[in-house]
Design goal:
The complex is a heterotrimer. Chain A is an alpha/beta fold. Helix content of chain A is about 35%, strand content about 25%. Chain A is globular and about 75 Å long. The two termini of chain A are about 40 Å apart. The chains are: A alpha/beta, B mainly alpha, C mainly alpha. Chains in contact: A-B, A-C, B-C. Chains B and C meet through helix 5, helix 6, helix 10 and helix 12 of B and helix 1, helix 6, helix 7, helix 8 and helix 10 of C.
């Protein structure tokens, strides 16, 4: 029996240039207890659809066509009071950002009970009992105590569990989960997703999972809708869409999933060798004049990157991997340790020979400078200058497919995310460095763009022959790209091995947990590149 | 998409298109009001209908007429001429004050925030202490020491506002400093001062412009207030504050003496406030709601 | 929470020390010899020398500062040159008047402005919003001293409803006192109301965009509860901090308002001290106002911590 059926939904968004359709004639349906994935990259309109079902569109967005039938009733024609009665008790929603989706000034208990009290007429005592039971079911430690605490006292994963509990305790028939785990680390993501899957199963709740993550959706849903720029390009069984895509866009999406590379390279002499690296940051000062508490970010780490090799540096947020990368190129102050570049400790021109590519392409380019100026920064400092310099600039911009004559005078805001990241790559490589740290260079990008940038980086490495430390939280990307991998946890290295060995037989328990947490598309793993 | 579908759907908050006058109260209106004041100030430098300072005892307390648009005061001086000349004094003082506060605040705040360390902590201690004198208080204290004069007003107000600018610039520098393009500049070996002046400070201009505009209004108001108290630009110099102060004895019989200078200040401030709001919506929406006042 | 209170209080101390240094230095920067200023021209050189010794002016500056600070901390702010009254006593006499007007003005402003700002944001881009924004920006642009003069002209002179200038303590004559208070309080409240309403509107707009508000709506809560429980409370925190700023404006601007309405408050005392070159009184006023301002900002800070549990770390 169909629970919810979206028919020809069209949503327009007011922009300064007039209304723009962000969702265009999208139709799908979910049976009772069914599970549907809404898959799309940024700008695909997937979030809008989720919100439209509850009639909670952001200001500026309007539904201009279509019907949303829920239990045979068109939600779009409901009066506000009738719509409120549907929200929460019939359709629940889990949001993306665990940091902002709970009210910081109210206790968890207050927030969990207000829905049931208002919607379902429970007394405070009953609602609190129900909340406590639900918190037990989401495996929160000390559920009774948790009710009296404020959201900021919980980690992101815990907050998402609380969120899940507060939504499911009203026993809705449909749960809309909007990127529920995107902001979480892989291991936590797996725990929360598994928990959600199980609870939905037990309660018999239908699920609409809105996500950009194909493997994740594949694991947790039966049917999926692929969205591109507001249009549904493909609809069908999830497994089928991902193993045998018919639409060209879906094909590109599936192809962009990282796949493990084959073969290993022979040992070469080290380009960068670091011993006993230790980075300590100043923590909070209790008083302005008191001594700050030290925070150890990187604790006595040895690392070596050999000629022409890509070393993957993996770890969760807070593991110190980014700080280690920055310390290697001299951007984070070291308390102890030594870094040798080609055998020499910190040669005078190390800034030319060691470079870094940053994570956020929106923050790493000075918004006031043109592409040509940004990329030639290293040449200004180290040469070559004049015509030789211009030749070098042309060369590298051609290399990242942003020819000087077309793109040289553009400002960063005139570029897409992928183009920006290519400017960052060009900036780092223009001085022909020996060694490059790539700090999560693709994690802010959409899957298809990610693929383009990674391919480009691999090509450039073939041509320019630099060594690379590739910092990433994404095991899939590391497996696809790196020769060797180093795993960090709490500022220390817990495992290092050839990539093939590490992924085949991880020796450290932490590495195993990281690998287990990676969602895999059934049947898609073995495809060659 | 049908028209029917558009009208059928009840909107969550009864949102409608902006009413016309809301669309009109924007930068244009503010800029127009501001332009009137600035043109007035320019006129004050070039030409005014009557001598704004020289008494004319034959024409005391004349009500507004065609010859004297805003009437005459107790010394027989033309109020309109004095208003125009007052615009010159007010705008000059306000601009100089903002220039002083912004340059001191930006340079000290920029260096202090970017380099940090004990010097930064010392600067912040001094800034906090200066900010502990609310509103006009510090300016009043400085004027008490320096005695009334135009330069005194500029220095006093400049010093009162510099700590606010400093704090804003320092805060912005601290956040811009953490952005990755600044690290990229360090990564190619740019010297620290180059990075600060080429990458960091240029990216702090948006909040600075917004604040500068607000400070311009504050300075104008503060100068009037100081003159009103007799602690600003000394009479007989025509300033709006002086005119209001002098009107106090006679405004029962000659209300125009109080009405027009006050209107002048209000129009100037209204222009700056509306223009400033539009500017901040465009440049730096995060600063919305932060009013800088004396 | 108590650690937070203790920490914030401790952080006040160095600020206040530097404040005292600034006040001390300012008065010493006045051209001329304080002893000569305090005595009149007819006094002999011997009298001036005696005065210098009495004031401790023959000692090195840091010693003078230390002695002066010691006196201030024990409540001895010197005596007024003009009236011979101890400065602390004069300040105490005048403080009540200023405090009454300031507190009433803030109270009225906050009570009216918080709901106004909340409603304006909730009704963003509607006529209601436009009206609230328009009125706020208008009042924001009126100089308080002119608004005061215009009120006197209208209500006291033309209509004769209220007394024009002066002050009667409400503890002596409640109704009469209130009549004197209406215009000064209204003048200040109207302008400050504009500031608070604009701040509250901006903060509310910020909060309305946040996920937890959508979450509250997604739970099916009625809009009134969403607004009061989830929106207003979180918007209030930052809006409260503006009360600290307003108080600064009111204290710093007290001289002006009290001059307009001829109210014997601390602001008027300050201005009179400047006119009369009565430096001990000037020093006392500066110190007291800065001290009050710092303390109120501390309280505002702590209130913020109560409203937003994240700050209590």
């Amino acid at each position: 029996m169909t629970l919810v059926s979206v028919e020809g939904l069209t949503i327009a968004f007011d922009t300064p240039d007039g209304p723009r359709r962000v969702v265009d004639d999208v139709s799908f349906s979910v049976p009772a207890k069914g599970r549907l994935g809404l898959i799309g990259e940024s700008g695909s309109g997937k979030t809008m659809i989720g919100r439209a079902i509850l009639n909670l569109l952001p200001p500026g967005a309007r539904i201009v066509g279509g019907r949303i039938l829920f239990d045979g009733e068109d939600l779009l024609t409901l009066e506000p009071a009738a719509m409120r009665a549907v929200r929460g008790s019939r359709i629940g929603m889990v949001f993306q950002e665990p940091m902002t989706s709970l009210n910081p000034s109210l206790t968890v208990g207050r927030q969990m009970t207000e829905g049931p009290m208002h919607q379902q007429g429970l007394t405070r005592a009953d609602a609190e009992r129900a909340a406590r039971q639900m918190l037990e079911r989401v495996q929160l430690r000390d559920p009774a105590g948790a009710l009296a605490r404020h959201p900021h006292e919980f980690s992101g994963g815990m907050r998402q569990r609380i969120m899940l509990a507060s939504v499911l305790m009203m026993r809705p028939a449909l749960l809309i989960a909007d990127e529920p785990t995107t902001a979480l680390d892989a291991v936590i993501q797996k725990e929360v997703m598994d928990l959600m899957s199980r609870l939905v199963e037990e309660e018999g709740t239908a699920l609409i999972l809105v996500s950009h993550d194909l493997p994740l959706v594949a694991q947790h849903t039966n049917e999926a809708v692929i969205l591109q720029s507001g249009r549904a390009v493909e609809t069908g069984k999830t497994g089928q869409i991902l193993t045998a895509p018919r639409d060209p866009y879906t094909k590109r999406l599936v192809d962009a999933l990282p796949t493990p590379r084959k073969g290993r390279r022979a040992a070469t002499p080290p380009v960068v060798a670091a011993r006993g690296v230790r980075v300590v940051f100043e923590g909070r000062r209790k008083l302005p004049w008191s001594r700050p508490a030290p925070v150890v970010a990187v604790d006595n780490v040895d690392i070596e990157i050999r000629e022409g090799e890509i070393v993957g540096l993996v770890g969760e947020s807070g593991s110190g991997k980014t700080t280690l990368g920055r310390a290697l190129v001299g951007l984070a102050p070291m308390k102890a340790g030594e870094i040798r570049l080609d055998g020499a400790p910190r040669p005078p021109d190390f800034r030319r020979r060691m470079q870094i590519i940053f994570q956020d392409p929106y923050a790493s380019l000075d918004p006031r400078m043109t592409v040509a100026r940004i990329v030639s920064a290293g040449l200004r400092r180290f040469g070559p200058k004049g015509t030789e310099g211009e030749k070098r600039l042309r060369e590298i911009l051609d290399g990242v497919q942003l020819p000087l004559d077309t793109y040289g005078a553009r400002l960063p805001h005139e570029l897409s995310g992928g183009q920006r990241q290519r400017v960052c790559i060009a900036r780092a490589l223009v001085t022909h460095p020996r060694f490059v740290v790539a700090d999560e260079p693709v994690s802010a990008l959409d899957l298809t763009v990610q693929k383009e940038v990674l391919t480009l980086l691999a090509d450039l490495r073939e041509r320019l022959g630099f060594s690379c430390l590739f910092v990433s939280h994404d095991m899939g990307v590391i497996e696809a790209l790196a020769d060797r991998a180093v795993v960090m946890k709490d500022g220390r290295v817990v495992e290092r091995a050839d990539c093939a060995d590490l992924f085949a037989a991880p020796s450290h328990a932490y590495t195993r947990r990281l690998l287990d947490a990676v969602p895999r598309v059934p049947g898609a793993v073995e495809r060659p590149i | 998409m049908t028209l029917e579908a558009e009208t059928r759907i009840p909107d969550r908050r009864g949102r409608q298109r902006r009413p016309w006058f809301l669309r009109q109260i924007n930068g244009t209106v503010g800029a127009a009001l501001l332009a009137i004041v600035l043109i007035g100030a320019l006129m004050g430098y070039i030409w005014v209908p009557y001598d704004p300072v020289e008494p004319n005892f034959l024409k005391r307390f004349e009500a507004p007429s065609l010859a004297h648009l805003m009437g005459t005061d107790q010394w027989g001086r033309d109020v309109f001429s004095r208003i125009v000349a007052g615009a010159r004094a007010s705008v000059t003082v306000a601009l100089a004050t903002v220039a002083l506060a912004v340059s001191v605040g930006t340079i000290v705040g920029g260096l202090s925030g970017y380099f940090g360390g004990w010097a930064d902590r010392l600067v912040m201690l001094l800034t906090d202490a200066l900010l502990a004198f609310p509103g006009l208080l510090l300016a009043l204290a400085v004027m008490a020491v320096a005695g009334p004069s135009q330069l005194g007003v500029i220095v006093a107000l400049g010093l009162s506002y510099a700590p606010s600018v400093l704090r804003l610039v320092r805060g912005t520098v601290l956040s811009v400093r953490e952005r990755e393009f600044v690290e990229a500049s360090r990564a190619v070996g740019d010297p620290a001062l180059y990075t600060l002046f080429r990458h960091v400070l240029p990216n702090c201009t948006a909040p600075l412009i917004v604040m500068g505009t607000a400070l311009f209004g504050s300075a104008l108001l503060a100068e009037s207030a100081l003159s009103f108290l007799g602690l600003g630009i000394p009479p007989p110099a025509p300033t709006w504050g002086n005119m209001l102060a002098e009107s106090r004895g006679d405004f029962v019989t000659a209300p125009w003496l109080a009405i027009f200078p006050g209107l002048a200040i209000s129009i100037a401030l209204l222009g700056i406030n509306i223009f400033g709001d539009a500017l901040r919506d465009r440049l730096d929406p995060r600063m919305r709601g932060l009013d800088v006042r004396p | 929470m108590w650690a937070h209170v203790a920490r914030r209080t401790a952080m006040m101390v160095p600020t206040l020390l530097v404040v005292s240094i600034i006040v001390f230095a300012l008065i010493r920067a006045i051209p001329g010899d304080p002893a000569e200023i305090m005595l009149n021209d007819l006094d002999s050189d011997a009298a001036i020398t005696a005065m210098r010794t009495e004031l401790g002016l023959d000692r090195p500056l840091p010693v003078q500062y230390a002695i002066w600070l010691g006196n201030v901390l024990t409540g001895d702010l010197g005596t007024s040159i003009r009236t011979g009254q101890p400065v602390a006593e004069a300040l105490f006499d005048r403080l009540g008047v200023t405090a009454t007007i300031t507190a009433l003005a803030i109270g009225v402003a906050v009570l009216l402005a918080i709901p106004a700002g909340l409603i304006a944001a909730w009704k963003q881009d509607t006529l209601t919003d436009a009206a609230i924004i328009g009125v706020s920006i208008l009042f924001l642009s009126l100089p308080s001293f002119w608004l005061g003069l215009m009120m006197i002209w209208l209500f006291a002179i033309t209509l004769g409803w209220l007394p024009a200038i002066g002050f009667v303590s409400i503890s002596e004559d409640f109704v009469g006192g209130l009549r004197y208070l209406i215009m000064p309080v209204a003048t200040l409240a109207l302008v400050e109301m504009a500031v608070v309403a604009r701040m509250m509107r901006a903060q509310t707009l910020e909060v309305l965009r946040l996920d937890y508000v959508t979450h509250a709506r997604a739970k099916g809560l009625p809009e009134t509860i969403v607004l009061t429980r989830h929106v207003a409370r979180n918007a209030l925190g930052p809006a409260v901090t503006v009360i600290g700023l307003i108080l600064g404006g009111l204290l710093g601007g007290a001289s002006v308002t009290e001059t307009v309405f001829s109210i014997p408050g601390i602001g008027r005392l300050l201005v009179d001290a400047i006119y009369a070159r009565d430096y001990p009184v000037l020093q006392g006023c500066l110190l007291l106002i800065a001290f009050i301002y710092v303390c109120v900002n501390l309280l505002v800070d702590l209130a913020y911590a109560v409203l937003d549990p994240r700050v209590r770390l």
